[in-house]
Amino acid sequence: MRVVVTGGAGFIGSNYVRRLLSGAYPAFAAAEVVVFDKFTYAGNRQNLDPVAEHPAFRLVVGDVCDDDALRRLLRADDIVVHFAAESHVDRSIDGSAEFVRTNVMGTGALLSAALHAQVRKVVHVSTDEVYGSIDEGSWPETHPLEPNSPYAASKASSDLLARAYHRTHGLPVCVTRCSNNYGPYQYPEKIIPLFVTNLLEGRKVPLYGDGLNRRDWLHVDDHCAGVQLVAEHGRPGAVYNIGGGAELTNRELTERLLAAVGADWSMVEHVPDRKGHDLRYAVDITRIATELGYAPKVSLEEGLAQTVRWYRENRAWWMAIRGAASRS
Ligand SMILES: NC(=O)c1ccc[n+]([C@@H]2O[C@H](COP(=O)([O-])OP(=O)(O)OC[C@H]3O[C@@H](n4cnc5c(N)ncnc54)[C@H](O)[C@@H]3O)[C@@H](O)[C@H]2O)c1
């Protein structure tokens, strides 16, 4: 069996690959694992260093928009886990072209190649941001898609393509929609690694607006465990929300990060709010919990402490990224 992981050099994809190859998912223990990644600014070979010498690991550098490369890559019976995407909301506000290209066109190309190759299953990894913003309660998978940022709109479009490939062609594709992730190896532009690395360098952290936006924070291991359950047992054509971490305002999150590195509110700089900033996201995880037995395992206390420790102990990893970003 082969598992093809697009975007496997990014934050979540590389976590999935490292866990897969370390035996965390026994049903796939014998699988060959092929990472297919373009290595954009967010892709990093170091994220795969722990598995680079594993005999079952293979790396293919390529673009999910490249039909020919995808056709050469995919084989009948492959399981494809599709993480590759442009993933940062702020970048999509600055310009949406790459988001439309990779997230929409790239997913379309991948689905088409998967159909041609007659793969066993595709898991399309999406986000809760496709639902929009919700003041109270939580979204079931049947909630209409009302994305507000160009990033979320591009992911919603890719979800609809996945649905269409299932309905039109019978492609065995599942969609997952997860809440905000955190953990080791996350590119330091997203709030948790940005704040932690700034604080470790003695720099201030930029808090958007009043800091009252609320998010469900899920450890990346729990997201990947949900993706794996869907890869193994998800019903073709079905959408599964993944979440159930801890809901916090950005202010509360900031307080926890300050405490974790021993800093105080003098290190917080209030900056104008993100345009169109969604107030709250919350997914209803009843479907994946009841159908597939999913339950998150990592508490926020334990997960944040582990994450902060990782950034403390892996300064070279993020200093290299910061150096490259300041030179570009
Ligand atoms: N980070 C989160 O909190 C979160 C939450 C829910 C869902 N998601 C989804 O999970 C997936 C992974 O997110 P992430 O945070 O790991 O992203 P990331 O930005 O860290 O990694 C994206 C990876 O995709 C690769 N990539 C980008 N464009 C490509 C292309 N055209 N062809 C091939 N590879 C390409 C990059 O090189 C990188 O390795 C995304 O689809 C994202 O929408 C993320």
UniProtKB/TrEMBL annotation:
The record lists the catalysed reaction(s) as: dTDP-alpha-D-glucose = dTDP-4-dehydro-6-deoxy-alpha-D-glucose + H2O
Q: What's the cofactor? A: NAD(+)
One Pfam match, given by its short name, reads GDP_Man_Dehyd
Output the superkingdom of the source species: Bacteria
- What are its E.C. numbers? 4.2.1.46
SUPFAM superfamilies assigned to the protein according to its UniProt record, in alphabetical order: NAD(P)-binding Rossmann-fold domains
Report a single Gene Ontology molecular function: dTDP-glucose 4,6-dehydratase activity
Endoplasmic reticulum is among the record's keywords:
no
Could you tell me which residue ranges the NAD(P)-binding domain spans? 5-306
Q: Which UniProt keywords apply?
A: Lyase, NAD
GO biological processes: nucleotide-sugar metabolic process
Q: What class of enzyme is it?
A: lyase
InterPro entries from the entry? dTDP_Gluc_deHydtase (IPR005888), NAD(P)-bd_dom (IPR016040), NAD(P)-bd_dom_sf (IPR036291), Sc_DH/Rdtase_CS (IPR020904)
Q: Give the family from UniProt.
A: Belongs to the NAD(P)-dependent epimerase/dehydratase family. dTDP-glucose dehydratase subfamily.
Q: What is this protein called?
A: dTDP-glucose 4,6-dehydratase
